[in-house]
Amino acid sequence: MTTSHEHYNIWKQNLHPIPRRYYNELLRHFGLQKLAPATPEKKLLDIGCGRGFFSVLMAKDGYTVTAVDLDPDLLDSFAGKARDLNITQMQGNLLTDTFEPAPLVVCQEVLEHLEDPAQAVKKLACCVESGGSLIVCVPYRENLESKMITDPDTGKRYHKNGHLHSFDIVN
Length: 171
Hints:
Mean pLDDT: 78
Low-confidence stretches: 1-11
Structural class: alpha/beta
Order of helices and strands: HHEHEHHEEHEEE
Helix content: 25-40%
Strand order of the largest sheet: 3-2-1-4-5
Largest sheet: 5 strands, parallel
């Protein structure tokens, strides 16, 4: 039986649509890498790391990485790569746990799933060392209604990816 997490496991070569997801992740990595400031201490806290693709690529770039996710199955999906690259994995909740501050904190594709993204940003700010940087990625102008599905048992409508929010630029 395939779980919903396995369908999106970029580490398994036999699953479709790996190439598209892989290239999307790779493009995001290079974009974020350009945003990451050059610091003497290449240390990253990756909050909401998911399957660890960004964590792994940053570790290969010489960063000391702490990869945090709420879901232990997602952490387990790249445990071997994490061991090989000395990535510290932590199961944790951004809203309730405390993390050691780092000079670079990245949070990708997490805030849209949370009831109170503003509170999450405040918590993320507490994870950044003085003078450090926080990089957050969220869906931009996503049409939430177009991705709604209806639970056949309850009749309730949900976003197919669990998104509660879409984001736009605020001046």
